[in-house]
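Marked as duplicate of an earlier ticket. Keeping the data here for the record.
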Amino acid sequence: MKNWAGNLEYSSGSVERPESVDELSALVGSAERVKALGSRHCFNDVADTEGVQVVLDRLPGGVEVDSERRVARVSGGITYGDLGLALESQGWALHNMASLPHISVAGAVQTGTHGSGISNRALSSAVKAVEFVRASGEVDRLEEGDGDEFFGSIVGLGALGIVTALELAVEPTYKVRQQVYEDLPWDTVLADYDAVAGDGYSVSLFTDYAGDAVPQVWRKVRLDVESGPAPSSFHGAKPAMRPRHPLPEMDAVNCTQQLDVPGPWLDRLPHFRHEFTPSAGDELQTEYLLPRAHAASAFEAVRALAGKFAPLLFVSEVRTVAADEFWLSPAYRQDSVALHFTWRLMQAEVEAFLPELEAALAPFGARPHWGKVFSVAPADIAALYPRFADFRELVAKRDPEGKFRNRYLDRLLP
């Protein structure tokens, strides 16, 4: 079995699909090594194992909303697309979505995956409680009020147990409009990136870092916040006259509705439609999050390398993420800008270039996304996270025999 991109073949001896938590508990309790496998949208071996891989898509339990507490209990194996449909049918919504709705909730939360928005925290920030199957096979529950261990476990890289269910904060459903603008001057971005990034509920820049302008800006606004017509220009960028794909040569048929047409949150916050099912992605991805205060300097550093990485790059997306309190969240205690790179499927060439890109971003404290390709040394990663030593101790406490370890965690937590 391979991951979504096809650049990694999993090394597990078997893949199991338990149909109950009891069955999963027995499986975990008897296994020497075991890892959960979500939607396979990671580009490295964070979910790999030489033992047993478990897929949670057959676990029972739909989406149960507690309207008084404003939380929804969901199975760890559900995707954000299916969750969104279930919530919308009951009149509820999440605060944010990732660009691709096909990813699993548990996998996205455990790797610190995020959406965009200068005031929007990562997807993990919606978690109010989590249920694990621990190494012993015991089912355990942590709630937000449980303090340190809760904040150390939500972005946990699968090292602390297998997530079977989560309780997520929800809010009443809302509508969103999506607008695309073209040719945003780089001078404007560099002069006041906060003004650009903050001008909308979610703002994404799509660029190759070359030239004098950012080719595309995707702006999403909530109708309950901004009800008037779309601006006739966006900080000097002009409105797109037709639906656009982030890659100019690609048809926008699989992208969510643009041209300022209102629609439900789940059909606008992602960039791609839920009904579109990507079968494979001939690409690699890397991403680095760093303090938003350093955004302009980081852009300049990357633009200086644009000529070198041009043959490798499909497109780069720039987003913002608000700070949170999760120990291993790439946005831990820092309002962040996220520089995401979608590379051509040229693994050797990309891996050879990444050290140079990472060296350019290192002065700004760039933290790599846990589920994407990076080359930052484990010691350097540890230095980026003030609670990293505490996380190491938590893993030793919860999994002393290393049942949930794999090559990835052996490198990260030697």
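See parent ticket for discussion. The mean pLDDT is 95.
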